[in-house]
Amino acid sequence: MRWILADPNNAAEQQWKQQVAAASERWWRAFQANAANISATFTQPGKFDIVQFMDDHLLAVDPRLCWEFGPARRSNNVQAGGHRLVITPESVHWLRPMLNQVLGKAPQIPGWEFYSHRLPEDVDHARAAVEGRCGVEFQQAMIEARIGRHRKIDVLFTFPQEKWSEDQARNVAFVLTETLLGEETLDGWIGAIDAVDPREPGHRWLPLERAADTVSAVARSMLDQLPAEPLFRLDKETAQWSSYRLEPEGDFEDFPERSDLIVGTTCCLELIEAVMSGRLFDSRCHSRHKEYFCYLKIDASEVDGSQRVEHRAGLEDPLDAALQQAGIGGSIGGGSGIRYSYVDLAITNVMPALPIIRQVLTRQRAPLRTWLQFFDTTLSEEWFGVYPNTPPPPRFPEEE
């Protein structure tokens, strides 16, 4: 369900937002009233049922939220013996826009800090996490970070003194990655995580203490290699265009997302490959200019097959011109599917782009079932209909 682009006239979306707002207000009021009791449980366990408190109040906001406490990070709070609370949706990534708004309402409570991702920890904490979650200890470990596929960073570990199975070593590697790098880096930047034999040649092993700085340096180097101009500013006449072909799979009454796509063209094949990789997608890995990568999904079922490309161009070209004139976006590719046509877009400022998209495509008489949707995993539930009465786009069935 949408959060950022929720329709004021959509009863279900507005009911959800109102419920979250009311529950969030009750949650923060309860937390502020019980902050001293919560702090006391860290030195005097048993006097206050913190788990029941969190179940009663935080999970009333949304039962899919997870939480954990830890010591404060900011120097003034550290000196005062303060605490932090991390609230995260973990794998339910599309809840992050909602969670960001909830955390934005957090009151100022002396000694307390609130975060939406698990933070990076030091090596001692990482060792403790491995022992607690994997049930093993290790004598020595080293790390290597390298540029991987789809603009992700692959992280490799080696444990030269351990005799673990491959699965056990990989589990330890994942826990170390999440703990040393933090949840935000894990979700946004990390690709493959693996453990390898220390005798395998070709590696440049580093101590675990350098994990976070090394991954940050690799990420910066990857961003430095990107074009100096926003992607939508590329000259379409001189840009290097690539074509690709897919074989749609799945038995759907309709086609969610881009599941019917057959052929496409793009000026950034690496981006499209990342979209299709099945990994979490984050626009920040593909642009130095805070661009969001998204697409128009256009119902072309009433358009003759021989006219599909011309029909799409009749929508894409004037929209590209309007977004370029406003200086906030433009088209970077497109494609055709079994039922739908697609126009890929890069947009630096989404909210001002929406009325431009609606105005241009209304004038061009786009089909009623035309939507703006997003590649970013955290925005996977967000969509914008070209017309006020555009119905919701098709979705994949909910997992049971």
Could you characterize the architecture of this molecule?
The protein is an alpha+beta fold and 400 residues long. It folds into three domains: 11-115, no CATH class; 123-224, no CATH class; 231-385, no CATH class. The protein is built from eleven helices and 14 strands. It has helices spanning 11-41, 50-57, 75-79, 96-104, 123-134, 166-181, 183-189, 211-224, 269-276, 308-326, 350-363; strands at residues 66-71, 83-88, 112-115, 142-147, 153-158, 190-195, 206-207, 242-245, 261-266, 292-299, 329-337, 340-347, 370-374, 383-385. The strands form three sheets. The protein has a seven-stranded antiparallel sheet with strand order 8-9-11-12-10-13-14, with helices on one face. α5 (123-134) crosses α6, α6 crosses α7 and α10 (308-326) packs across α11 (350-363).
Summarize the structure.
The chain is α+β, with helices and mostly antiparallel strands and 400 residues long. 36% of the residues lie in helices and 20% in strands.
Order of helices and strands: HHEHEHEHEEHHEEHEEHEHEEHEE
* Unreliably modeled segments: none
Count of the separate structural domains: 3
Q: Which percent range describes the beta-strand content? A: 15-25%
How would you state the average pLDDT, rounded? 95
Residues in helices, as a percent range:
25-40%
* Gap from first CA to last CA: 17 Å
